[in-house]
What does this fold into?
Amino acid sequence: MELIDGNAISRAILDEIKAEVAALSGPPPSVTFVRVGEDPASVFYVGKKQKVAAELGIESRLQTFPESVTREELLGFIDQLNADPGVHGILVQAPLPDHISEREVFNRVHPDKDVDGFNATNVGRLCQEDPSAFVSCTPAGIIELLQRSGVETSGKNAVVVGRSLIVGKPAALLLVMKAATGNATVTIAHSRTDDLAAVCRQADILVAAIGRAGLITADMVKEGAVVIDVGINRVDDATKKKGYRIVGDVDFDAVAPKCRAITPVPGGVGPMTVAMLMKNTLSAYKRQQA
Ligand code: NAD
It folds into this structure.
């Protein structure tokens, strides 16, 4: 069994980006994060992304709004960022308060600055297999993990469990894409799938993007499968200082011995998401310089 090391692979990608940024002349690539409210996970994720950006020489700015921000104020601010030539990438951190439509906000971001890839134009471009698409960072990171670990996707059965806009659907689109990194036969499973275990057992490549700790058990995994665990779940653990630990959607200890390769949680898909965000930011910068 090979452990797919997302920390090492993301480090290699970040080093490539850092070298490219260092070689640029003029003002650096710049990304603006927009955060609404003080959701602790959002505060943590934006902080992490800013730290990595700084390390790569990418400028990042943070604009925060209170939970009470109006739809008009938020959309107005996005319009300002869209019009600002000094802003190459825009990322609106989800979740947003209930009175604001995430879809409307994501769709307001200019497609060429949409480094998260959630905008309808970029999702459409991905469907069209248009290389100019900004692809959602987590699924893009999954493909990089597979590619850099030498996992062949062409002709393989891939099962993606989860159908979200952010992970499941774009992961499936990438895996089915007519490309060396795709060409898989893809099934998307979800909460209404009948006999999930039987569907998962068909997978040569199993992507779990569910958000339920340990839902994927050993009986659901074929011998020799490659398993990509996207889940980030907190489980109580009195032995930890924080009182919890982070686990994936896969029952790692039981599943790993059956696998050809598997990603750990933490240290698998997570660090790749941030690396792909930096890659998208550099691409956005280059596109706007052209
Ligand atoms: P989501 O809640 O939007 O989607 C979850 C999907 O799982 C849904 O499509 C649902 O149909 C499916 N599902 C729920 N219960 C199921 C069940 N019992 N059987 C089969 N399918 C079921 O979540 P998301 O945004 O796609 O995120 C999924 C997980 O990945 C979460 O744990 C999230 O924290 C994590 N995540 C990790 C990263 C990362 O960087 N590693 C990035 C994004 C999301």
